[in-house]
Amino acid sequence: MSQPADYNPTPHVIPEGENATPLEVVGGDCTATEKLIIIMCGLPATGKTHIANRIARYISFFLAVESKLLNVGDYRRSLFGVISPSDFFTHASSNQRELACDAALGELTDFMKQDGVRVGILDSTNCTRERRTRIREAVAFLKCKVLVIETVCDNEELIEHNIRTIKMNTPGYRNVDREEAYKDVKKRRENYMDIYETVDERDGSYIKIINFQTFIVHNARGYLPQKVVHFVMNLHTLPRVFYLTRHGQSDYNLLGKIGGDSGLTDAGRKFARRLADFAHNHVGMKVEKDEETGEEKRTPQPARLWTSTLRRTKETAQYIKHTKIPAFKWDNGDEVEWIQFQGRARRNLDELYAGVCDGLTYKEIEEKYPEEFARRQEDKLTYRYPRGESYMDVTLRLEPIILDIERTREPILIVGHQGIHRLLYAYFMGLPREQAPYVNIPLNTVIELTPLAYGCTEKRYLLLSKEEMMCDGQDEPVTSMPVKHQEAAESARQQSTPDVHAWDVMNPPSF
Ligand code: F6P
């Protein structure tokens, strides 16, 4: 039987109504129904604050659930001064510590009382069962789920690392002499050890994280606790960096068209060659200084390479070599042979799909679909292109990528797209989701991100200058920036004050 001329089968029937959305979008209808309070527990320098921060970020960005992190140390500093010597952490000062805890608890309670599903996290050592029971009793009237997360660390190397790279950079130690700070943290740990009581069934639901290797989960039921369990099992506090770069200039970029699956222009290939140089000399190269001679020692190190499945990202990665480097041992003892930059093309990293607008310029979209264009201006985050995607949809498919980035220990170079990198960047930099669609992710630039316990640091490397690029066709037309969102865009720009380095191919700098 012949089909009518306008026959156009689609995978599902699009409901009627103004730009009706056929799929449930992340954040549109939250699956969680119960409020959750997380009580952190653990000796200083076991990674609590790092975990608490990451959970709060994940929950608000991916699950669209409001979250609040209350750090008892912040209340202590505001009540009793910025620097508290380790003596403060002895039994003698326990009253003052309880006062700081009560202040944080008061705010936690006020937050949890509000309507709607929410997650409150109380970040403190909470070392004794008495303290944990007191907290539990104080919040009992709220009828929320309570989950204790205990961090246990008996690996001296990890403790040393946590003290030197995390703890000593926390607000209480920022302006203190490094050795003094180190000794103080050690002393604090000893003081707490005297009174420490590990978590067990009497604490109710809990997750015990031992050296970020062994996880004991007890009675953690429900949507949010399960999400938290899965998330924390992917975390670690080891130092690592990852790199975001867009593909080199594509034919579509040059024409100002969005989407498509075009290849690279000459300028795009030039960028691809520089990127290979950057990958080999920076991302995949461990640079250490010999303490005695002061000379630089450069050793190739394991590194990963991810692209999307689209032609422009694969072509951008084409000059990066996949070299076998000597076998090394994982921390679980397994010996592996590593192929540096073995490429992995991931569909989840494909650019936001513009549906019927794919292949058009912004100007053409405005002329052909003026109503759609105006709707996108209104709300760029939730707007979904007809038969295409919204930033919210893309957020949903990026969740597994985020979990992979969180758990990976080697540097990862991600060759992706503007829309995708905006979301990855916003998540790690702690920007609200509304600001994500406006983050500036220029072509020809590699963004180096280093997640830390208190946020994430950023460096940008410019691999091709604007002059070398001539016209890059990437300047977003003013009309694509809705007036009411210009403020959000400006604030996204201001929050990101990147440190930009020019990358000189002939003479790569060592940073
Ligand atoms: O123009 C390049 C591009 O990657 C397009 O393929 C994509 O549609 C667009 O950027 C995403 O940016 P925006 O959401 O600002 O339109």
From TrEMBL:
The keyword ATP-binding applies. GO terms for molecular function: ATP binding. InterPro entries: 6Pfruct_kin, 6Phosfructo_kin, His_Pase_superF_clade-1, His_PPase_superfam, P-loop_NTPase, PG/BPGM_mutase_AS. Residues 33-238 form the 6-phosphofructo-2-kinase domain. This is 6-phosphofructo-2-kinase domain-containing protein. SUPFAM superfamilies: P-loop containing nucleoside triphosphate hydrolases, Phosphoglycerate mutase-like. Coiled coil: none annotated. Transmembrane segments: none annotated. It holds the Pfam family His_Phos_1. PANTHER family: 6-PHOSPHOFRUCTO 2-KINASE_FRUCTOSE 2,6-BISPHOSPHATASE LONG FORM, 6-PHOSPHOFRUCTO-2-KINASE/FRUCTOSE-2,6-BISPHOSPHATASE. Residues 474-511 are annotated as: Disordered. PROSITE patterns: PG_MUTASE. Keywords: ATP-binding, Nucleotide-binding.
